[in-house]
Amino acid sequence: MSSSKAARGSAEICGKGNMTASTARAIQCGTNVTLSCHLRDLRPPGRCRVGIFLNDSGVRSRGPSVSRTFLVNTHGRHTFTCKTVCGDTKSLVCGIDIKCGNPPDEPGNVSCIQTGMDGHPLCTWDKGRLTHIDTTYVIRLSNGTHEWCFAEESLNDSFGSLALSRLNFDSNYTVVVSASNKLGNASSQPLTFMLIDIGKVETFSSDQFHLHGLEPDTAYEFQVSCKIHPERGLWSDWSTSQARTPEAEPRGTVDLWYRQQDVGSQQQNISLFWKALSKSEAGGRILGYTVTFEALEQQNPPTESHHTTQTSYSRLTPRRGYRITVTAQNSRGRSPPASTLTHLGIQDLPPPQQVSAVAMGNSSILVSWRPPLRSAVPVSGYVVEWAETPRNPHLEPQHTWAKLPPSNLSAVIAEHIKDHTCYQIHVFALYQGRAGQAASIRGYSSAQAPSAGPQVFPTPRGSGVLVSWEEIPAAQRGGCITGYRVYLRSEGSQRRPQAYAVPAGPGPGSLFLPDLRPGLLYELWVTGSTAAGEGPRGSSARLRLPAAEGWMTLVLTCSFFIFSACVCSLPPARKMFLSLLSALLPQWQSKAIPDPANATWAKSFMATKGELSSPSSLFLPSTVGFEEPEPTPVEDALVPPEPSGLGDKLLVGSAGSGGHGDWAPESPGPEPGDEQQLPELYQRLVVEAMELPQPEPGYISSPGPAELPPGTEPAGERPELQCHPLSLFPATFVPPALCCKGNLTLDRVKLSCSSSPREVGDGSPA
User: In Å, how far are 615, 628, 680 from 741, measured between CA atoms?
Assistant: First the structure.
């Protein structure tokens, strides 16, 4: 394929035909181009047509030639083709390329630089906008008498560069950059210079410079640049070096705060906290801290010093006031001491009033307050302390605080503040270096509804249930919990669950729900709320109280015992009940009362039995629970015996001469005057038996010592008796009628006594 250029257009001559364009091969965008195609044969073969195409779109004709005009408005190369179309078959006849571009812009920012005093100057320039067609750049260098041309060697589309030949140091030079393409030409402004003006020094001799006002123990980067002549020439590139300044003595004091807690009545725990010095205050790397304790209100008190590398220190001390100082030290020295005073009593140092916390968003909280009321000591400042609610209640939270002058009544706290987190805030007033009582409040920077609910634990209590729950984990609270809701729903109910609001408090919460229906299945759950809304429900619990049948059993059981007690109060029914009970109880129950056969009063009876003028019926063993004694003949009964029922009881009276109680049966007793006919031994026996102190329930194996009357032997020298409570005595013995004749022996009678041995008869232990 050969090409030729028409006077005002361009053409392509091919073997099958010719193709012409109404413009040159390079045009500016927005130009209309008319393309024509002529076949060498007068007509296309068969039913074929001739067409001109641009990117497979074009116009077709039935004749031997075709023509069409195209608007070219995009940069770059455009290929137009002429083809014969026979059905679905296309055959190329000829084609022509048209480029759309821009004339060159004027080259700008022309500069020439020679590195060092030897070498070749390098000139650079900006080409301007992209031409999209072939463009040539040439540098014309002239010294007034000669001119040199240098063609660009680089092919960069944005900027050009060209190295010149070696220049003379004393000559003046002029440089012009020219650009040209098929759409136009352009030249830069001339640049005139001498070699000293474009010389850039690479290296320089070493020198020293002294810099002042630098921070101690700080790494600095130093850069140096220079040029050949103070007023002419170019600055060299920056050289870079690094160095660290030496340490200096610390010049700042630590920000000190403390917490005081009593441990018992004689000791206290003092916890100290302080903030690390800033880099400018530290003067270098802090190696440690020294904490000193000086007891107040003592003559020449000793000073105790302690060393630590942490920013906190705790110590158990005696309960007294202290002056505490903290200093920081590095390799060059110590910082000025920070001091504080601790005192035992702060009741006279009131807290600030009306403390409030407002969420400010952006991880900050506004805390405001009013001055304390009726403070005898002037306020020297305030301390605002805040700590995140601990995720683990066994871990001590990290305290952060800020000290403020007395004129400040508000503060925006932002240090270590996180969104959706609850903080406990304390505000203290300072009184001449002493911290007064604290005013507390909770606060948050921003809140969202809790992401989880609390775990619920129901406990049945009578006809209700005690609902308790744990706190929501701190990471899932979304802020400060403002309250809880307890939900209760019965099984199968179509109603909405009953809700009970409970305000939030410290620690786990609880609520008692009374009057639940027995036998009905209930479902319980609890939710938590913040200022942003209510969170999801926590774990559910299902509960069913015992059905009514259980209560009926309890009622019937109680009714049976009440009925039994009422029936046993009647003598005939009581006799039958005791007979039944005697048959059911084991045999060892009948041997619970100790044997008094060797008692002193029994020996006295044997010695004086001849003096008896009438028998007595005071102590006759009952037929229930005891062995029947052998019958003893008794002489001359004074009173005929009255029938004695099984239900007769011996009653203990509360009145009587000498402070003794009286034994009296519930059944009719002997006629008046019969007491005077009782033998003196039995009268003394009854009186002395009543003088025994009332025993405690149950058996006492080791009775305690009792004060003895004068002339008696110590209790430790007498044999101890097994004693049984007197409460068993009335149920075991009933007062029989006096008999007329016979002898009474007490070797088989068992009698209950008190827990303390008493003198009976001749003073021997009973």
Answer: 7, 19, 18
